[in-house]
């Protein structure tokens, strides 16, 4: 329970802090007077004044604020309302922009932090009749080696690459039980029959091993960018799946998100960073 509460508050604080820093930095850069920069909502626990700004920590942790002078009164000196339309738009939208950029940072750090990855061979156990897999000749006992030249090292890889390419033809390299390899073209379905999945295969992992991975920053940053792009694609595909009725909507409130955060935190810092990036 303690891990769940602490990890949830830390994740929320990072996301809120990034958002409010966007407003704060652009306001300061535009010479708008910032009266208070607060993490959490009042009542105030304590505050420190530096220059013209009060930096406060408040009792209600779900939120934050950047209080600027004269947000609606242009007569106040150095007020937000006294600035031009472009400056006001920049300051007000900077929080959302920071939340869009935060995942890039978090994903990159997640790749740099040493973390455990379970790898092995993804083996086909069953093939659904008349499914895309059946139509291209995939059979039980085949091993899925790569998808669009990306190695399939675990079931998570297969699921991710599949859902990134719903409705599009992909190249799937398979190894048959007699050790021969074959590359087939397959189109994962948007709306498969219940229990079949996009390709129509039931898989398991064999020869599992756990390896320790981390990347230097010059590789982690490009991978972080790629992860951000793929996350947006997954969001888009999830929304389209809801529209066409392929999946049902499951809504999690703050308690549900906190529980998920606690479960992810138990897996390590790297997965927690990825989860925070996803929430952002």
UniProtKB/TrEMBL annotation:
Membrane topology, from the record:
Multi-pass membrane protein
Q: GO CC terms on record?
A: membrane
Question: Matching CDD domains, A to Z?
Answer: S2P-M50_PDZ_RseP-like
PROSITE patterns linked to this entry? PDZ
PDZ domain span: 122-156
The record's Gene Ontology biological-process terms are: proteolysis
Q: Which InterPro entries match?
A: PDZ, PDZ_6, PDZ_sf, Pept_M50_Zn, Peptidase_M50
User: What are the names of the required cofactors?
Assistant: Zn(2+)
Keyword set for this entry?
A: Hydrolase, Membrane, Metalloprotease, Protease, Transmembrane, Transmembrane helix, Zinc
Gene3D superfamilies under this entry?
2.30.42.10
Principal place of residence: membrane
Example of a GO MF term: metalloendopeptidase activity
Among SUPFAM superfamilies, the record links this protein to: PDZ domain-like
Q: Which SMART domains match?
A: PDZ
* Localization: Membrane
* Residue stretches spanning the membrane: 6-25, 87-113
Which PANTHER family does the UniProt record give?
MEMBRANE METALLOPROTEASE ARASP2, CHLOROPLASTIC-RELATED (PTHR42837:SF2), REGULATOR OF SIGMA-E PROTEASE RSEP (PTHR42837)
Protein name from the UniProt record: PDZ domain-containing protein
């Amino acid at each position: 329970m303690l891990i769940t509460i602490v990890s949830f508050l830390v994740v929320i604080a990072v996301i809120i802090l990034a958002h409010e820093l966007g407003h704060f930095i652009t306001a300061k850069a535009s010479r708008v007077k910032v009266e208070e920069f607060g993490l959490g909502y009042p009542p105030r626990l304590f505050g420190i004044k530096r220059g013209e700004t009060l930096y406060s920590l408040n009792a209600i942790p779900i939120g934050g604020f950047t209080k600027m002078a004269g947000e609606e009164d242009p007569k106040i000196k150095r007020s937000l309302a006294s600035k031009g339309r472009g400056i006001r738009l920049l300051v007000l939208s900077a929080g959302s922009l920071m939340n869009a950029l935060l995942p890039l940072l978090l994903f990159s750090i997640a790749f740099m932090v040493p973390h455990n990855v379970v790898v092995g061979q993804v083996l086909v156990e069953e093939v659904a009749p008349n499914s895309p897999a059946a139509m291209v000749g995939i059979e039980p006992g085949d091993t899925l080696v790569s998808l669009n030249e990306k190695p399939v090292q675990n079931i998570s890889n297969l699921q991710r690459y599949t859902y990134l390419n719903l409705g599009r033809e992909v190249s799937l390299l398979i190894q048959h039980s007699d050790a021969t390899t074959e590359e087939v073209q397959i189109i994962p379905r948007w709306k498969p029959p219940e229990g079949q999945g996009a390709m129509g295969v039931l898989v398991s992992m064999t020869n599992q091993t756990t390896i320790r991975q981390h990347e230097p920053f010059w590789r982690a940053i490009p991978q972080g960018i790629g992860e951000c792009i793929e996350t947006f694609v997954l969001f888009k595909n999830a929304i389209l799946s809801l529209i066409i009725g392929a999946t049902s909507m499951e809504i999690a409130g703050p308690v549900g998100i906190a529980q998920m955060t606690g479960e992810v935190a138990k897996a390590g810092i790297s997965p927690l960073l990825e989860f925070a990036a996803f929430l952002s």
